[in-house]
């Protein structure tokens, strides 16, 4: 039996064994298509380094929101290209996090109705692949929505080692309203 045939057979057996559980999981996956996302980019320079080597992180961030069952759900997906010299270096950053927000869309400044900090970003930045690249997805914020429109917004906060400052913010475009 070929590898593909064995995989198809194993999948069929697992599907029969799991029964309704498989159908529930498929329903959850299809619900994810309701997210409305906006991707934007930014390049961030290490202010503590002025040498000849590349030291920028290049970020592509997708901020995503959806409305479902009276709730707003929001998350961020971060893709980055970092310097090869930063791979497995834990002394470049003192801290890093993604600050995710759910905002109510109003005339003027949109007020934040819920937020969370996701600190797992620091580990990912410090342990990119051998080219210094990687990705990170935040958890999902859930907010009980009232009437009106909402959106996901957020920014990356980097605290560079030896720069004498705390977090520096890098902003991205908010998701479409939901």
How would you describe what is shown here?
With 178 residues, this protein is α+β, with helices and mostly antiparallel strands. The chain contains 3 helices and 9 strands. The protein has helices at residues 3-18, 20-31, 120-126; strands at residues 36-45, 56-68, 71-81, 93-105, 112-118, 133-137, 141-144, 149-160, 168-171. Strands 1, 2, 3, 6 and 7 form a 5-stranded antiparallel β-sheet that branches. The termini are far apart.
Compact summary:
With 178 residues, the chain is of the alpha+beta class. Helix content is 20%, strand content 44%. The longest helix has 16 residues, at 3-18.
Keywords:
five-stranded antiparallel sheet; 178 residues; 20% helix; 3 helices
Q: Strands, helices and their partners?
A:
Layout: H1 3-18, H2 20-31, E1 36-45, E2 56-68, E3 71-81, E4 93-105, E5 112-118, H3 120-126, E6 133-137, E7 141-144, E8 149-160, E9 168-171
Antiparallel strand pairs: 1-2, 2-3, 3-6, 3-7, 4-5, 4-8, 8-9
- What's the number of extended β-strand segments? 9
- Give the structural class: alpha+beta
Number of helices: 3
Biggest beta-sheet profile: 5 strands, antiparallel
Query: Could you give the order of the helices and strands?
Result: HHEEEEEHEEEE
Share of β-strand residues: 35-45%
Instruction: Report how far apart the termini are.
Output: 49 Å
Mean pLDDT: 84
Shape: elongated
Helix content: 10-25%
Kindly provide the radius of gyration, computed on alpha-carbon positions and rounded to a whole number of angstroms.
20 Å
- Low-confidence stretches at least 5 residues in length (pLDDT < 50)? 1-31
């Amino acid at each position: 039996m070929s590898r593909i045939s064995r995989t198809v057979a194993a999948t069929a057996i697992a599907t029969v064994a799991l029964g309704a559980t498989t159908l529930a999981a498929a329903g959850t996956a299809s619900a994810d298509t309701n997210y409305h996302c906006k991707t934007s980019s930014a390049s961030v320079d290490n202010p503590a380094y002025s040498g000849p080597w590349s030291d920028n992180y290049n970020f592509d961030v997708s901020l995503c929101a959806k409305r479902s069952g009276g709730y707003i759900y929001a998350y961020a997906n971060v893709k980055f290209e970092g310097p090869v010299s930063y791979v497995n270096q834990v002394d470049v950053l003192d801290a890093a996090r993604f600050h995710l927000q759910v905002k109510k869309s109003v005339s003027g400044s949109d007020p934040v109705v819920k937020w969370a900090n996701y600190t797992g970003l620091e580990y990912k930045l410090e342990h990119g692949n051998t080219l210094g690249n990687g990705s990170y997805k935040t958890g999902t914020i859930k907010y009980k929505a009232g009437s009106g429109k909402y959106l996901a917004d957020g920014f990356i906060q980097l605290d560079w080692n030896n720069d004498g400052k705390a977090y520096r913010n890098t902003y991205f475009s908010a998701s479409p309203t939901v």
